[in-house]
Amino acid sequence: MRASMASITSSFTGVRSASSWFEVYAAFSTFMMLLRTAINDLVPHQLRSYILSKLKSFFSDRHNTGQVSLQIDQFWDGQTNQLFQAAQEYLPTRITHTYKSLKLGKTPKTKNVILAVDGRQEVVDEFEGVSLKWKLLEASEKDPDDLPPSRHRRKSSHQSDPDSFLLTFDEKHRDKVVNKYIPHVLTTYEALKADQRTLKIHSLSSGHWQKSELTHPASFDTLALDPDQKKTIIDDLDRFLRRKELYKKVGKPWKRGYLLYGPPGTGKSSLIAAMANHLKFDVYDLELTSVYSNSELMRALRETSNRSIIVVEDIDCNREVLTRSTTKSFSDSDEDRKTIKIPGRFTLSGLLNHMDGLWSSGGEERIIIFTTNHRERIDPALLRPGRMDMHIHLSFLKGKAFRVLASNYLGIEGDHRLFEEIEGLLEKTEVTPAVVAEHLMRYEDPEVALEALVKFLKELDSDGLILDL
């Protein structure tokens, strides 16, 4: 090899013609062949691979000088990094059918198969004209020499290095990515988490909340309500959700009260379940007969979580909230509230104070729902706006709402030859959705079920009965 180098040097010093240039080329080619042979024979394969990877990385970095990379570790300051969790949930929503390297899994707590990205393929996202690339850096693929000291310490304590996400984008979009795109990922994650969470229903027992899964399937699509009334309720709930900043601006606690009233069997419990499923809120069923003092009521309400619905059913059955003497004008004054104080029980004053004061001192994004069969029996102090903001009258079944029941129980979509007659009979009679639903379930054949319902409604109309059982 030394002789070859000497020959090349000699050729360079004596270059005088085209033949001399050819001699230089031949000598250099011979030198490169000898050098490659020596490297292959003397340098281990692992070292050669390492050198080539470093060279590739060096020239790649030189080429992408305008790119910014943000590393999102699985842990931050000893705790789970919420941004890592957000990326984990967000990125599968950006995967298309063109991706060829994915992960699938399922846990006992999930109903469906879970889709996730792996480290072998980048996920490309677009946001307001910005192209962003995500890559999962799995622990098994990381070079320990590239980890900072803190990651070495964590690795020794956890026995395995955590994963990371690498987000890459053009440097000129740095502000938009940090100030708008990252919050967008977090907001999407919160929405996905709320949609996937298992709702709970809590019941007060011996002074403590006992929880179980809320499995009631009711939704606004399945409720037998007048379409206009249903839309009004949905719009009100959605408006409440998006007005956090307005409540804060005007100095009001972020809560809303609803009163559901009407005859038994008109769907009050189903509407509560539909509201919970729509909002993705847990439900707290507060049975006032199990509350024995104002302090116990305060403690029970303080233990409820944010994003929850507190339900007090059949409020008219509780003496503490019944209408005071009709000979006396109603007032919200403390003196007036004292008139119904019952020793050893909570008072209307206590209930009103908790409704007005508790929400501003602890918790937000809460809804309280009272149900009653007799609104006229409830003390007006409890019903005024700010406590019960929206009064929803659930009455007897009428024509438009009947078609929802026909779809739910009989699978009939669109029109039917008997619908017009049934709707006409419903307008002349007073029968609850529960009664009609029970008749529709008696027969498997839709034709037989509808004909039997027509016969029942005609008999009801001729007798002039009001059926609400």
From TrEMBL:
Needed co-factor(s): Mg(2+)
Taxonomy, superkingdom: Eukaryota
Keyword terms, alphabetized: ATP-binding, Hydrolase, Magnesium, Nucleotide-binding
Catalytic activity: ATP + H2O = ADP + phosphate + H(+)
Database matches in InterPro entries: AAA+_ATPase (IPR003593), AAA_N_dom (IPR025753), At3g28540-like_C (IPR058017), ATPase_AAA_core (IPR003959), ATPase_AAA_CS (IPR003960), Mitochondrial_chaperone_BCS1 (IPR050747), P-loop_NTPase (IPR027417)
GO molecular function, one term: ATP hydrolysis activity
Location of the region described as Disordered in the Swiss-Prot/TrEMBL record: 141-165
Single GO biological process annotation from the record: response to stress
AAA+ ATPase domain segment(s): 254-398
One Pfam entry name: AAA
Protein family per UniProt: Belongs to the AAA ATPase family. BCS1 subfamily.
Protein name: AAA+ ATPase domain-containing protein
